[in-house]
Amino acid sequence: MKGRIATLMVHSSPLDQAGVGDAGGMNVYVVESAKKMAAAGVEVDIFTRATDPHLPQTVSIADGVTVRNIEAGPIASLSKEELPTQLGALTHGMMEIIHSLPANYYSILHSHYWISGQLGWMVSEQTGIPLVHTMHTMAKVKNQFIADGDMPEPTIRAFGEEQIVKNAAGLIANTDAEAASLVSLYGADPDKVFVVTPGVDLNTFTVGAGKAAAREKLNIAPDALMLTFVGRIQPHKGPEVLVRAVAEMVHHAAHLRAKLALVIIGGASGSGLKEPARLEALAQFLGVSDIVHFITPVDRDVLPDWYRASDLVCVPSYSESFGLVALEAQACGTPVVATAVGGLRTAVADGISGSLVDGHDPKAWSAVISRLLADPAHRIALSMGATQHASHFGWGSTARKTLDVYDHVLSAGSKSSIKLA
């Protein structure tokens, strides 16, 4: 049969700009994999909570991919901490939509993040549609690596994730390390855990015309030593590490000040709503406000030029289930310096496409970045390795492997498997 998937992502809309609020790599993941599944003949409806009164209940974002806005609570933004109070309303709203459609309209429910997983569990119980869940991040993992100034994930989230793990027919992990955490920390059945690595749009994120052309387009000096951070500005993502690292660099090598630039591209999010202002004050206090530049999130068709223009892209996160920014930057030919945690160990090939740093000591980051900036030949070699490494990750592969998981779950439940058109 020709399958149809109900994808659940209620805490953030796939229509939102990545890098703002709760929108980030997960938004990219859901949209890009849905497009590839639709291109393979499997239609995808993405259910999210309505936050814009001007949007209709359904919005088509690609052939075979439709966003369905569920009315639950105020049609306005709610924090992730507030959303659990709307689970009853979300369940009611989604069930109303399902009841308005033909019988057996959806073959699989696929939820993303724990709040959507709770919704998926309740809908699955009521409809009998099998639930597949992708965590993306996990409370028990994040609480092992808490940034200064950040808050631990609440107990209710960890408990909610345990319930999802127990009741889902299948669990998708981004990496082997995440799969191991699902088993060891949450007691997941290993036979229900599948590893599907995220991808990158290899047609959009490319080397293109190169660094010089990108810098001319963005009005960046040809001889600048440019470090770039892309993502939500919150303690967990670690931008403070970079601010302190560049302060260390110019303290030990004053000549760098004339050319060094740290560009932070993103918006405030989660517990870091005041983080941009705090980082600006920190840069001022450390005497590097002339080096640190804050840029609001940019459209995805412009983002590749920022990656290409950079000498290094830095991902100092305290934990990452994967790290799409690292992969996108490498696809553009830019080496990545990232924390040696979680999925970043897979996203970055240490010594080949970039460098992994143990921990978040600004002095260690300063040392690694300084060595790379002082060795252009090494950066060229890493650039070549970065492009090659990223070429192994495409959304088409992510979609195919996800469809394989759906087939497995449906077969295990004695239901018809999804066949590609």
What does this structure look like?
The protein is α/β, with parallel strands linked by helices and 421 residues long. It folds into 2 domains: 4-199 and 394-412, Glycogen Phosphorylase B (Rossmann fold, 3-Layer(aba) Sandwich), CATH 3.40.50; 211-390, 3-Layer(aba) Sandwich (Rossmann fold), CATH 3.40.50.2000. It contains 15 helices and 14 strands. The strands form 2 sheets. An 8-stranded mixed β-sheet has the order 3-4-2-1-5-6-7-8, sandwiched between helices. A 6-stranded parallel β-sheet has the order 11-10-9-12-13-14, with helices on both faces. Strand 3 and strand 4 form a beta hairpin. The longest helix is centred in the C-terminal third of the chain and has 18 residues, at 395-412. The N and C termini lie close together (9 Å). The model is unreliable at 415-421 (pLDDT under 50).
Our Rg estimate from Cα atoms comes to 22 Å
The CATH topology of the largest domain corresponds to Rossmann fold
Helix-strand pattern? EHEEEHEHEHHEHEHEHEHEHEHEHEHHH
Termini Cα gap: 9 Å
Can you name the CATH architecture of the largest domain? 3-Layer(aba) Sandwich
CATH class of the largest domain: Alpha Beta
User: What is the averaged pLDDT score?
Assistant: 93
Shape call = globular
- Distinct helical segment count: 15
Widest beta sheet: strand line-up: 3-4-2-1-5-6-7-8
Largest sheet: number of strands, sense, barrel closure: 8 strands, mixed
Whole-number total of structural domains? 2
